[in-house]
# Entry
Amino acid sequence: MTRVVVVLFFLVAATRSARAQPSDAGVPDAPPADAAPADAAPADAPPPPPPLPVPTPATPSPACDGTLDGHVVDAVTHDAIAAATVTVGSELLAQTDDHGRFTLTRVCPGELVFVVERADYNPATQAIQAAHGAIEIEMTSLASETIEIREKAPAPTEMRSTAEISGARLERTRGKGFSTALADVPGVSELRSATGVAKPIIRGQFGRRLLILVDGIRHRSQEWGLDHAPEIDPFIADKIQVVRGAGGVRYGSDAIGGVVLVEPPPLRWQPGYSGEAHLIGSSNGRGGTFAGRLQAASDRAPGLSTQIEGSVKRLAAAETPTYALDNTGLFDVGVSATVGYRRNNAEYKISYRRYQARLGVCACLRIHNIDDFLAQAELGEPLGADAFTSDFEIDRPYQTVAHDTALVRGQWDRDHLGTVTATYSFQHDLRREYDVVRNAATAGAQFNFRLMSHELEAVFEHNPIHLSEHWHLRGAAGVVGGAQIHHYSGLQLVPDFTSIGGGVYVTERLIGHSTDVELGLRYDLLARDASLERIDFLRLVRSGQLAAGACTDPGADQVTCASRFHTFAGSLGAKQQIGGAWSIKGELSVASRAPNTDEQYINGAAPTFPVLGLGKPDLDPETTYSSSATVAYDGQRLKLEASAYANAIDDYIYFGPAIGADGMPIFDVLIRGTFPRFSTKAVDALFYGADGGIEVAPIPALELGAQASLVRAKNADDGSYLAFVPSDHYRGSITYHPPDLGPVRKSFVTVSGTYATRQKRFDLAADFIAPPPAYFLLGAELGTETTIADQTVRFALQGANLTNARYRDYTSLMRYFADEPGWQLWLRMSVFFDSTSHPKGT
# Structure
């Protein structure tokens, strides 16, 4: 134990000495000639200005042992000022880091007068007497500055564990599904369906308990279905941020599991044009993808910017190592257009996006009776697999989806006050599902879902408030309102409903030199009216789940049942910076989530999710008590983050297999076939686990990475395990960057492996069959970059499951019927063009 403490002491001491150019005040130390910079810039960043010369150190006085921490901010906005130099006379003492901070060590007693400078600010002179302590220095921008600066200071660090997918990391996911692009993040896995697409799982939570925000607005769709993947074109993203843990205050009280923020690229304001194009070929299922984006601005229309983008994907049915997954082809199209306008202190944006897809459902997904279901689950391949083919044709059963989003946003900067942002959005989600019927040529869809959502949000972010030399306050307050109309037609499943709701929230962060503390509160009200068929209403009354007088006009063909929910969310978080690279952050939060309409009233089975679902209309909101702690190190050659979390959920709304009095799963025989019964009930649940990752660069040309994700979930009432909780996942990778060869640059070779353990924590009665065995997947990728006609062109070849392993995944609905796809290759070419003819990344 003593050795561990000693090692940690020297690590912290070494890290503290590597902060942003610290030096002795009056007697600075010159760094060794072979020392690397403390904060290395990204490869594609412009080269920094050469450092000022540091004089040869002299022998310090024994009394010169003081330490001074400084924080440099804008005098008006109080935003941090990075890359400012701190000098005494002609001697460079320090340079501020990204947060405007610097440290002076071995400060001598007496008066010390130093000057802080940056090219776009007036120099600030500061005199101090103390040899220890902390100071804050305010700088005023040059009065003669004529360049309009729109960029704000970076947002405060998220208190929860976060991961960002952008740049080269995002580019490597091009051509894959939206959820697959997130799956390499620690703590994130996929809930796969029989359509070949998936939805993300974050720390064991998915669907209703995850929020996806696209360009700042919440994605509204039929997320309740286990087989309903997000209707999002991943090519619209320039950056994806995954927030692991409850985010209920800022994003909504039902963001219990986490938040996925999909951010499009910023508009181009410099006159000219730029864009990118991607061409991807896939081997399994066969097919390809094309996507492109064009941005333009003209000096003939100052302040006006436009963007258009689109993608097309067509894939044949995938294949396992031994047979095809018949009828799992895919065809989707995404288009969007955006117009932005800037004038004075205001900025406006209008955008429209459309995504539509046709998704085949595997022909293997059929249940004739209980015995067939259990027998097929134990077989190595589906019944009739010899006749399965891998082609582009999509027959019944299949589903079509179309999602339209319109957005109008205005942002106004108020000097000395802050920024006001108002956003209105409208979303139209249309989903149709087609089952196998006798007269398929003339029959339409058996399930038709139409959801229309209006949402309006106004947010005020005040400028940082100066409290003292050591502390300032930064925060926001917002109000949000929304309305939804849902129409359903077809076979018995879910009711129509209308809803209206609103909420208010406030967050404030106290920011110090190395310590941040954040507090947030939110309140929401939701009023919803569901329209039930009389037969459904009477069934609920007979079962005792609904009182006969709980709904209006119970004798009518359509019975209206009203629900009103009040939900609250609160969070308290803190972050402590230790030295220049170590940080610790933690959060405590509470949030409540109102039940969805399907959780209350579902009654039926859909072709893409072969279970008979039954709702529970008397559900109350579920309440989550969350805690998390994260430790991180961000150094030049070593980066790591490790998190632990625990969520206790009262009245957790659990949709799972119904168990009979004999302890066995219940199956229902309908005209359409035999279906396992899934029911909705409220239980107390506990989720806990840990996840994290590490990246090491022992030499500049070599990168090593490792990740781990562990999650546990139990029914706290009886100690049983919950279904669809991911097993433990581990991932490792090795990346080598060979030297540039003439015009060929930034080449890389990556080999990766993913190991998923067998889920040992399961309830056989709830899962029907035992979880599948553990599996290992080998992946690899190689890529390079060059310049053609002054534009950047990138090539990459990527492979997955290169050993062609047969496996089934515990969180895949397909595991009851078929294996997952076998080995697969993607060939990708990307072109980045710009009217300024400067290749991207140079």
